[in-house]
Amino acid sequence: MKALVAQALTGTAGLAYTEVPDPEPNSAVIVDVGAAGVCFPDLLLLRGEYQLRLEPPFTPGMEVAGTVRSAPEGSGFTPGQRVSAFTMLGGYAEQVAVAPDNVIPTPDGLDDGEAASLLGNYYTMQFALGRRGALQPGETVLVLGSAGGIGVASIQLAKAMGARVVAMVHRAGAEEFVSSLGADVVLPLTDGWRDAVLDATGGQGVDIVVDPIGGDAFDDAIRVLATEGRLLVIGFAAGGGIPTVKVNRLLLRNVSVVGVGWGEFVRRHPAAQAQVGAELNKLVAGGLRPPPPVRYPLADGVAALDALANGEVRGKLVLEP
User: Where's the Enoyl reductase (ER) domain (predicted)?
Assistant: First the structure.
């Protein structure tokens, strides 16, 4: 089968589209991949900058959707069944072997690209907003990096939970796309953005900040929190080091900085995957749909990942064999 293989930790330059052996079934579910989700941690893996450092060669790809080719007896899955899966590795390929506990039936009404879009970003943000942030109806959520995959999921899920959403954009021309997701207010992430957020909230600030970018925006993100506000630390896509905070600011203003590590949480608490999945499936049954993903052929994976790294992708990026 064909796969995208990291042959050196030199970013996308180290990727090769090449022939590799088919996966061995053993006790795994073998999935014919219809779409593989692309996420920012994949880029970090390819640079050797992720918390999990792998030595090449390896095949990236943490999330897939497709069709069961074979499944072990008692797994609950059957050949031909449409499924989605958290693979952690191996998803950028025509087939992948997945532990049965990491496979979930694909909700009706979604194609493979849409189903892959619901995995990492939407599971992360359902966990982030629902459990870590304890979002309540009527609260206000500020989303940084709102045109990216995490940002899109944040806007849609926050609205589905009854929140008001203020979305920040730093990409030219992204305002219309972000507005189409249901954001109540869309503002540019430029100098003075903190004052613009305070103006948009009548000076009260926001109850939750979703921060997948870190960097220079972090300090002002804390300053726009209302009393008992929560800043959800999702990641550090902006680069430039990991932000720090003087904890006296948290004490004096009665605000919280909350870490969101979905992958680590579900590793320690495997039952959480089914719980979060059930919550998401209810929203999907009620009409929630991710926006159409940006689709690239698997063979053009290098170009796709470069587009993601350069900030050219709005929403979710998927690779299709």
Answer: 11-319
pTM summary value: 0.85
Distances (CA, A) of 208 to 87, 173, 180, 224, 225: 30, 25, 21, 9, 7
CB–CB of 129/161 below 8 Å?
yes
The amino acid at 171? R
Q: Do the Cβ atoms of 206 and 228 come closer than 8 Å?
A: no
Cβ(301)–Cβ(15) under 8 Å?
yes
Nearest to 67 by CA among 29, 109, 120, 21: 29
Task: Indicate the SS3 state at residue 36.
Answer: strand
- b/e per residue, 138-171, with b = 16+ CB within 10 A? ebbbbbbbbbbbbbbbbbbbbbbbebbbbbbbbb
The residues that bridge with 319 in the sheet, in sequence order, are 36, 296
Pairing relationship of beta strands 103-105 and 140-143 according to DSSP bridges: unpaired
CB 320 within 8 A of CB 116: no
pLDDT, tens digit (0-9, with 9 covering 90-100), for 156-175: 999 999 999 999 998 778 89
The rounded distance, in Å, linking the Cα atoms of 100 and 27 is 8
What's the pLDDT tens digit per position in 209-254? 999 988 778 889 999 999 999 999 998 766 556 888 888 889 888 9
Range 96-123 burial, b when 16+ CB lie within 10 A, else e: bbbeeebbbebbeebebbbbbbbbbbbb
Residues sharing a CB contact under 8 Å with residue 222, sequence separation 6 or more, in sequence order: 209, 231, 245, 249, 250, 253, 255, 257
Question: Is residue 159 within 8 Å of 169, Cβ to Cβ?
Answer: no
